[in-house]
Amino acid sequence: LPQAAEALDLLLGTQGWRRFAEQDPQKFRNEQKEEAERLLVALGHSQIKRTDLIQQKLQRMEREYARRTEELKAQAAQAQKTEQETRDDPAYRAALVQLKAYEDRLDRIQRVGKPLLEAVLIVAALVCLVLGLLRHLTRALPYYAATAVCVAMALLLARVSWWNVPQRHSVEEQMALVMKQKNQQHPLEERPQEEKRQKILAEAPVDMAKGDVLQARIAAPLHPEAAPGRARPLAVGRADVAANRAAAEGKGGIVQQPLRRQMKQAEQDKFLGDRVAMPLDKGRKRIAAPLGPQPAEQPLVVREYKHVRADGPAEERYDFAETLYWHPVLVLPHGKTEVSFDLCDSLGAFEVTAFAHTLDGRLGSASQLLVSRLPFTVQPRTPLEVSAGDTIDVPLAVANNTHESRTARISLTEHANLARLEGAETIEMSAPAGTMLRKLYRFRPTIQEGVATLTFTGKADGFPADSVRTTFRILPEGFPVVGSSSDVLEKSATQELVLPETWIRGTLQCQVQVYPSTLADLQKGLEALLRDPNGCFEQSSSSTYPNVLVLQYLRESNQVKPEIERRAQELLDRGYHKLLSFECLDPAQRKKQGYEWFGGTAPPHEALTAYGLMEFRDMARVHEVDPAMLERTRQYLLHQRDGQGGFKRNPRALDTFGRAPQHITNAYIVWALTESGKDDDLTKELNALHEQAQTSKDP
User: Fold this and answer.
1) Largest Cα–Cα distance of the chain, in whole Å?
2) What span, in angstroms and rounded, lies between the C-alpha atoms of 673 and 105?
3) Is pLDDT at 478 greater than 90 in this prediction?
């Protein structure tokens, strides 16, 4: 109804205000201004006003920056004016002329004095030489020495005179140099770096295909493989180039404000506690240098793999590797690279997957199929292993990947350790275009244990033959039984073996190892002692200490076992760095001291620290150990002395070190200190242990 709106206003008593406000709040606010804002607050339609404190701070800093810049420009202009006046002063020019006269006088002295001094030295050398020749050899030696000294001084003086030839300038040339320096532009008057960047971006071409990236260089030339924290090429998109060109031409383009964005990003990164990332453009960042000195990075070792086809006949397919290439850390300075690897003999599709990320955290991935095919192929499907009494059905796939029907000749050329039960050794068959046929062969193993080999060859008209060789294991039926025995060999030795009643004939295997001495038998087990460190401090020590002992034994016994020593060194280096990660950090003093099971900011454990001190001391004999770390570990234990012959305990310690009594733990700490430092004064602790030992009833 036409009167509906008016009737609603009279009913609500708002004269249309509420209706207008609820239907279009923005229009109502534009028409009624402040009164509309008050009504919208009452109705709950007002917008929340947000104040960006960081933005306000940045604006104040920009204003201060602009004011300070103007002051510096004024000071630079005044300094340049003063310099100009000084250069135009007649007294300044007269001083230059007088300085030139002094330089000419010194030049004349050098040109006359140096040759004269050289002549005197040469005459002195000749006189000494003549006097030496007129005397006996023993009395002539001082004259020969004086001759050599004079000749050396003359040559040295001549060399200095040759290289230090003064550059002579006339008064007119001197004044010309002064005028040239006067006309040089002042460094503060050079164009700012931001204007140079705007000019580069404004002059860049914008006719680029979709997805193209323009590489622009800012400031100093950038190396394509610059390390993180240094300047890198700036990637500028098409829209950014157009916007900068419009800004440069005064067409209302986006005017960049690098200072504001840089300060805002720096403020945000300050709260995050991360490295400062200075943005060079919207959506694109450059990783700046980290704040403060950074510790030296440890080398990172990663596994890389590139498949190389195994040696064998080229006309036969036998290499069926499943992984062809693996590169976990592939750095691409320009976003592109090329990799190479050998294909295996498998036919079908290989999936190529790449995962990538940029320095600013953007992620990406891509997958693609790589298809390997032949015009005509044969492919048997064999199991990984079979039992000796099994009957094996092997399907053979025959594929014609061409567009024409062909006659194929299939041959079973080898079936080592297998008896053929079904399937002809040579058959001919017609293979339609683009189809795959299937033939079935049946075999039975002829041995109890070993390796079976099958080789099939297929030949189609017009194409080379395809030959495939596959192998699989044959295992005996039942469960394996293993036993061992040892004895001392004196001329001859006999050992009786009791075979199970159900043993399978043809599966018995014997191995004999003879060692010339007991020591040689022990050496055989050295490699089995090597362990890969893992777990907490205690677990890592249990696996690292054997590596230390193996290296000590090899060096003390003067044995040369390169493989075992290399492996032990690798594991020991890995264990050493893992143990260092458990050193505790005192948050109050911001320094490291002592060790604990898991490290971090946990309080150090005195007994575990003593164990670590002894372990690192032994490790230092075969591996490089940080002496500063050893010293602060020893000092921590010394500072934990309670002054009564014992050691203080941290009440927040994780464990009590095997629940050992206090005096046993004190004795262990004293033992660790006496083994690591011979000059430490532990008299009180040793006396306390002596008294406890006399009264102790511990057997």
Assistant:
1) 145
2) 74
3) no
Q: How far is CA 695 from CA 491, 606, 692, in A?
A: 57, 25, 5
Please report, for residues 220, 245, 285, 286, the alpha-carbon distance to residue 202 in angstroms, rounded to integers and kept in the order given: 19, 4, 20, 21
Tokens coding 157: 């003086």
Tokens for 298? 């440890």
Q: How does pLDDT run across 182-238, given as a tens digit for each residue?
A: 454 444 444 444 454 454 444 444 343 333 333 333 333 333 333 333 333 333 343
Please give the Cα distance from 426 to 212 (Å, whole number). 59
Give the DSSP H/E element, type plus range, for residue 385.
strand 385-387
Statement: the pTM of the whole predicted model exceeds 0.85:
no
- Indicate the helix (H) or strand (E) that contains 124: helix 90-133
Tokens of residue 610, six digits: 């003593």
- Alpha-carbon dihedral sign for residues 416, 417, 419, 423: negative
The answer to whether the CB of 385 falls within 8 A of the CB of 474 is: yes
Segment (H or E) for 96: helix 90-133
How far, in Å, CA of 409 to CA of 159, rounded? Answer: 91
Tokens of 481: 């039984």
Please answer whether residues 613 and 605 qualify as being in contact, where contact means their C-beta atoms are separated by less than 8 angstroms. no
Residue (of 536, 531, 526, 544) closest to 615 by Cα position: 544
Amino acid at 333: P
| Main-chain phi, psi angles of 593, to 5 degrees | -165, 130
Distances 339 to 155, 226, 325, 327, 358 between C-alpha atoms, Å: 61, 22, 9, 10, 20
- CA 9, CA 567: separation in Å to the nearest integer? 92
Distance CA 699, CA 693 (A): 11
Orientation angle between helical segments 34-43 and 25-32, nearest 10 degrees: 140
Helix (H) or strand (E) holding 694: helix 683-695
Give CA–CA dist 397/379, Å, rounded. 5
CB atoms within 10 A of CB 540: 22
Structure-token pair, residue 587: 């948050």
Closest by Cα among 675, 667, 664, 662 to 633 = 675
Token pair belonging to 214 = 């323009």
Matching residue, tokens 């920009």: 62
**121 near 154, Cβ under 8 Å?**
yes
Are 622 and 552 in contact by the 8 Å Cβ rule? The answer is: yes
For residues 475 and 460, give the distance between their C-alpha atoms in angstroms, rounded to a whole number. Answer: 37
Count of alpha carbons within 13 Å of 453, Cβ hemisphere only? Answer: 7
CA–CA gap between residue 37 and residue 18 (Å, rounded): 12
pLDDT at 221: 36
State the Cα–Cα distance between residues 352 and 372, nearest whole angstrom.
Answer: 13
CA distance linking residue 443 with residue 452, whole number of Å? 11
Using CA atoms, how far apart are residues 37 and 53, in angstroms rounded to an integer? 24
pLDDT digits (tens, 9 = 90+) for 547-599: 898 888 888 877 777 888 888 889 999 999 999 999 998 888 888 889 988 88
Q: Comparing C-alpha atoms, which of 73, 150, 88 is closest to residue 119?
A: 150
